[in-house]
Design brief:
4 copies of one chain form a homotetramer. Chain A is of the alpha/beta class. Chain A contains 14 helices and 15 strands. The longest helix of chain A has 17 residues. Chain A is globular. The two termini of chain A are 15 Å apart. Chains A and B meet through strand 7, strand 8, strand 11, strand 12 and helix 12 of A and strand 7, strand 8, strand 11, strand 12 and helix 12 of B.
Chain lengths: 348, 348, 348, 348
């Protein structure tokens, strides 16, 4: 069984901790290096940060001494959970130095030589890497995954491309863990809703979705022509971003065809039986009041997107609810799935 | 100063308690009669139910002996906060017996001789009453207000009718008080979202809005032709229903014209300076993260709808957020405003 | 591997669902029978109730047809998650008919021939069963576990009996799942605290604890002489009852001796390596802000009680915080542990 | 009507905003000066911070230009809502310069020449001021109020001093607003409890209570000899600290005598009919599930402490629940009451 050493950039943060949790007992990857800010460097991980997940912090990771987030002696493969305020420079430094950076940060997502991956949807976008090194002068590479608010929507839309996606409207109800730690103040969100998420959240939904759903055309990704309108809100939920979605088609199918498309949808991760791949990336729930974050976000270790309530939309064609775990399927989990895919495709 | 005796049907329920609170110290109306189920009848109100609002229960109401919800010695004007499972028969009995029922229940809202009122929008719909008694053979009358999920949307749309409302999509994030008491189980909603509200909530949004915005035409209301699509969800908020709204127009105005339309909007309640009328039914908030239920739902004693985040919508024309207090502006408060309007129009 | 058929009384309720979840894939017990109210009888379990736990409902249980809660063709061993309003008669009927009832209900807990068990503490109380059948004229038997609010406190105290427990004060902060379903209305608990729990919760803490900690003396349990004062409150937490505890001793030890007593505490379930036994019934957490229900209640599948913040108490001797999962360690899980113990002791 | 100009130190913080809210339309005090950190200085208050209270920010305060927190042209009387990390130096600078600082910060509370006031309890402690200027060499003075967790407990105990207070145990369930803004991360508290509050919260309860209840003896305060044990926890409540309290007496009265003592308790603020004084500082609620923060914290504009559930305690003598609004009665409101008292006593 291959044991591939990996590092984690931004190890003390919300996504960093989720990387550690998900890589505990991973069959292929072994966390041997943790990078964080100067403030944490030099301390045992256990002392550098408070562990904030219910699952126990594994002892071997707890004892790792955190290093500064610079290439040096980091392993070749590093996962990045860095905040976007620092990810630009640090990830570039790692790519320059020959590392493969599998990043959850937004900084390079829209770079036209950087794959923006949900591997069930666009595994073939990895071919963008062919021209990345030349374009940037890097010895290494960067691969990214989308913003957490994008995942459930995009996975729900991908199987429907066959019907001619024309337009989509989504209102998201996003969990507080999506804002990292300390993130949202309890003063602001207890018993409340905040109808705004900073950092260009709505723009990310509108641009990233189009790139992920786009076609490769001569080594470039042609963004999908779908018109997208997003309203993103914050709600008092710990984990799980919900989307209230309406979609319009060029050739509107009937509801049965949509359900079939979702139920039969699989991608490269399922073909290759990757360790983190759920059996079905999408599960449709027939109860009229589902999906719900508290009940459904953790399905299949948080890697399955659940959908429910498909019904006609008087304005567009159909409406439905979709839900995904924002720090697993929407961040650390999908990044690990990207790494697993690259390993099996011989790209590590 | 006129002192008009009024009764409250369903006095022990969530909306009934709000009626009591809002009528305490009302300049015109004096609560002298409380009707509820057999289980409560014969008890002092204080002993018939637990008072569940932060404002203190007034002593004089606390001492009233609850009567069964039947005409008998009730005052001529009764407010109804009855549950729809019983409102149909009971309100009919009161109308038969010559009472004016100002009702929050859904049972008669879509009856074509019953006004469905937001008095700033459609005060003239009261003329439907002219043919109500003949049509039903009642000695009294019934006037209704819309479902709590409808109010913020409909008030936001009303001033925009001049631009040719074509289509609207709304996702609501509704407070738990909208489900009455005991209503939503904490097991279901703590740290969660329920993407479904029973009792035909989405249909109500789609049908009631069209009636309220409709034009009188020869003593009938012609429903507004706008196409409406609603997704209604329940969130862990005590009071205040939020709507994430997109709207399409026949003749799309610019954003400034929409803001002007909202800011200058007033109706009969403002003209008549009714006691429960807010100075402006709509207030636009310029902060980018507003309105929020915890901060804005109680504005002007819960009678003002707040709107924010107006911006272009890539799919329809504009999108924005609107918020209203569901048990005040969306239930007891608007019913009282209806009664005040009728008093000043000589219809009590 | 033995496969023992078991039934569940009150299968549709909050504790009943937890029994089903915990018995899925149990190495010894196989759920073949579900009993519930008349309303549910005759329906497939899937249709008889909404499944309200995040873990998926196993298909084989989903298909079981619910029967009325009467002996008839139920297996010999039945777990009871019945509400106390009906448990008295139904459990008696099962005991009369020769069944072994392993019950979470309060009705027979204080019966002097019924063991009230936390098996790490008082496994020897099973000898009460010797005279139970004669005393009641039953062909079968009843074994009980304590109220969910009692478990963390009693497990924390048990290892300290050696120091002469004199008095204890506890304020509990109890999760809403302890009230069953629908249980606590969200209207009452969202952003709130209810400083009262009905049904004699505080008395249960004071009486059950003394019985569990009591000594067998000539086939009777002599209640422990400790003086107990409890204040029980409800908080907006899904799972996990927290206790803020102060304890006074006859011979006050130093803190180190208390920590040692907790850390080395094991009981018959650990000796016998029972399937549901956690490695250590008590785990002391050294972080100054733990235990916390959201992070610690699920430790070791919810069977471990976590303790923290041991420090001197100016009024009694020491104070600390203890936490246990109320529907697992405090209800279904401890009942299953009781059954496992009885199986290994040859008492099934 | 006297118009006394006052300033607010720490105006942008959680307590600072509450000062502004409570002083809007105050009959005696007029806010003309706001001091905050360098980052805010020079901006209109409206632009210096986000207003986070439901009540509207008054326009005249919104337009005030924030100044640096230094004496200069501040009015003679300043309220301080400063964080303790900076309050020590800044308040000293104001006292040096001749200002009267009415402070909510902890820094000078235990100074033996500084009154620590709940004016219904210890108005006479103002005589400590007689030797404050000489002791410190200040031209001005400092008066303080206690920590927010202390107020409900201490008000509940004060009327019981006549029975010989011997010992008290309290577990607090404290609202998140007590931690200021941004304060507690939602990640930490949503659906959770944190059984620890930093900054020496439990020590404050134990020491401040003894000083407030203490007797003046020759120009010094002799701390009350009561033995106090506190466990302080954080819960997901917006406003209102609840205490679960047991108390032991030298000469235990019966319950009726305790209720009488609470119901008849009044102090100098009531005698002088101060603008912010509630009619009764303590109100006993007879419902068995009260007080509750969501229903009772705002009673009498947040200035009344509510108590409930008085009953015997098996360990000490009596137990009960007490609740107070932490940022009003426990911070800004009590500070304003201190200022009102000093004005009427001729000490401004």
């Amino acid at each position: 069984m291959p044991q591939i050493e990996v590092g984690i950039l931004g190890a003390t943060g919300a996504v960093g901790q989720r990387f550690i949790e998900l890589l505990t007992a991973h069959p292929w990857f072994n966390v041997t290096w943790l990078g964080a800010s100067e403030r944490s460097a030099g301390k045992a991980f256990r002392d550098a940060t408070a562990w904030r997940l219910p699952a126990a912090l594994p002892d071997d990771v707890a004892r790792l001494v955190v290093e500064q987030a610079a290439p040096g002696n980091a392993p070749k493969v590093v996962f990045s959970g860095l905040d976007s305020s620092v990810a630009g420079d640090i990830e570039k430094a790692f790519a320059d130095a020959g590392h493969l950076v599998i990043s959850n940060a937004k900084n390079y997502r829209m770079d036209e030589t950087v794959p923006l991956m949900i591997p069930e949807i666009n595994a073939e976008h990895l071919t963008l890497l062919d021209r990345q090194q030349a374009a940037h002068g890097w010895k290494g590479r960067i691969v990214t995954n989308p913003n957490c608010s994008v995942i459930a929507l995009t996975l729900a839309l991908a199987p429907l491309r066959q019907f001619g996606l024309k337009s989509v409207m989504v209102t998201t109800l996003q969990a507080i863990s999506g804002a990292g730690y300390p993130g949202v103040a309890s003063w602001d969100i207890l018993g409340n809703i905040i109808p705004y998420i900073g950092g260009g959240e709505e723009e990310k939904v509108e641009t990233e979705t189009k790139k992920i759903l786009g076609c490769l055309s001569g080594n470039r990704v042609e963004p999908h022509p779908i018109v997208i309108s997003a309203q993103t809100t914050r709600v008092g939920v710990q984990n799980g971003h919900t989307g209230s979605i309406s979609v319009g088609f060029e050739h509107a199918p009937d509801a049965g065809a949509i359900l079939d498309a979702w139920r039969t949808f699989k991608g490269r991760p399922q073909e290759l039986d990757l360790p983190s791949a759920p059996p079905n990336p999408i599960v449709y729930l027939t109860e009229q009041n589902r999906p719900q974050p508290a009940l459904d976000a953790n399905r299949d270790n948080g890697m399955t997107v659940t959908i429910g309530r498909l019904r006609p939309c008087p304005v567009l064609d159909f409406k439905f609810i979709a839900l995904g775990h924002n720090t697993i399927r929407g961040a650390a989990g999908v990044a690990i799935l990207n790494a697993e895919l690259m390993h099996r495709e011989g790209l590590l």
